[in-house]
Amino acid sequence: MSKSAPIYRTRRSRIGGFSTVELAVSMTVLLILTAIAIPTLMRSFRTYQLNDAAARVSDMLKFTRFEAVRRNTQINFLIQASGTGWLVGTDSNANGNIDAAEKQQLISGFATLLPSSVAPNPTAITAALGGASLTTLSGSTGSVTFDARGAIRNGINGSVSSLIYVFYVGSVNDPEFGFRAVVLLPSGSTQIWTAPNGGAWQQIS
Q1: What angle do CA 171, 176, 180 make, to 5 degrees?
Q2: Are 175 and 95 in contact (CB under 8 A)?
Q3: 1 falls within a domain
Q4: In total, how many domains does the chain have?
């Protein structure tokens, strides 16, 4: 007489499945973990956007300075409005515009160039620079002239500049994610600073 195993198969099928209660508990745990993780991921993403925008402004300044030294001439770095953002680039042909073929970066979206009235007070930056005042170039159309030595001039064929320029990067609508500042020294070198909303500035590079 042969033995059948229907009861055995039924038990295996019951063991291999999930009950409605188990599924509901798993989904609840998943939703709780997702709710906890999303704010952290969003803050990390916003931090990346701020750092990236500041780095691109700094890189464009460095590129313009390098071009002036390489070509042994004076070249302007320009800031021009572009839609809701700002175009920064090198005016290689000295026509007063950033042409399509010239090196440029679009700073727009969440992290964009801001006027000084939106950014935190730069007291910590000026103190670190010996009390020197800062000239804000972000938030409006402007230019910076680099000479053949890589230093800053007061316009093409102008005198050597002693001004310290600053470009503020951040968001008007979401200031809680903080700000960045790109500082351009008279020598032509750059610094990048960071500050929380309403907090003090700290140099990061």
Answers
A1: 55
A2: no
A3: no
A4: 1
The whole domain housing 30 covers: 6-203
Contacts of 72 (CB under 8 A, 6+ apart): 148
pLDDT tens digit sequence for 63-109: 999 999 999 999 999 999 999 999 999 999 999 999 999 999 999 99
CATH of the domain at 173: 3.55.40.10
DSSP 91-129: ETT-SSS--TTS-EEEE-SSSEEE-TTTSPPTHHHHHHT
Q: What pTM does this model have?
A: 0.83
Exposure string of 161-174, with b = 16+ CB inside 10 Å and e = fewer, is beebbbbbbbbeee
Whether 106 maps to a domain, the answer reads yes
Q: How far apart are CA 160 and CA 138, in angstroms?
A: 21
The C-alpha atoms of residue 204 and residue 146 are separated, in whole angstroms, by 24
Contact between 64 and 146 (Cβ < 8 Å): yes
At 188, which amino acid appears?
Answer: G
Query: Could you give the CA distance from residue 4 to residue 102 in angstroms, rounded to a whole number?
Result: 82
